[in-house]
Predict the 3D structure of the following.
Amino acid sequence: MTSKSNDSISLQEKQVSLARASFYQHFAKNMFLKELREQAGLTQAELGERVGLTRSAISNIEKGKNGARQSTLSLLAEALGSTVEEILTGSNTSDSRHAAVAAFKKHQQNQNNVQAVGFLADMVAVDLPFVSFRARASFIELGMGVQHPDNFETLRLYVNSEEDAARYTGALVFEVEGDSMEPLLRTGEKVIAWQVPEGKWEQVYNQVCVVAYDDTVTIKAVRENELFTRNLLTLYAQNPAAGFLPVQRQQIQSLWRVEEFFDRPKIRL
């Protein structure tokens, strides 16, 4: 029984793997990313910078060598002032492509399509509380979002396994506002952060953090940590024009370590 069961699992894994590859190939055949990028007057490097990918990654997506996750497609669409459907099907770019649009929609609507089932079979959804710029006041009033998650809207993140999903326990998504952290972080972007226990605040150094202090929530880089010696944390902007801000320990309500963009590569200072 065990051998047959293992064989069955192995076969299912192979089917999922093949289905995912086939699904990506279908996406690649209907991809109009290059045309939309050129219409926007962007190079591959410029588009990559806007969405957190390298030039070669954009090139591979355009050539159909690599697939693009739904989240990546959404970022590309936003950067190009377009839609995911337009990137995948070319809709609204040429009347001659109506056949491609119809074919894609038929493929998408087929609930029994093993390719779509295989692609999504092992993805795990994680709903994270989202602290938008408008919600920062509520975040301060409530102390911290993880204690009152129902007071915030949520954003859904898809990960590969339950183990990956467990990593996001207690994490929050924060919206960036203003230009003080440019070019690293731009207004409107979203970052995922994990709370730092107060007993470990002294260990935070050379790290982008969300800091809730007094009646303010800010996203800055911690480059000077003197909490142990002077009870002082100095927050730095990436934009030289924005300067730095010293904050006393007694002012700080909570400290959150920013480790990732929302569904994008990890941040590196």
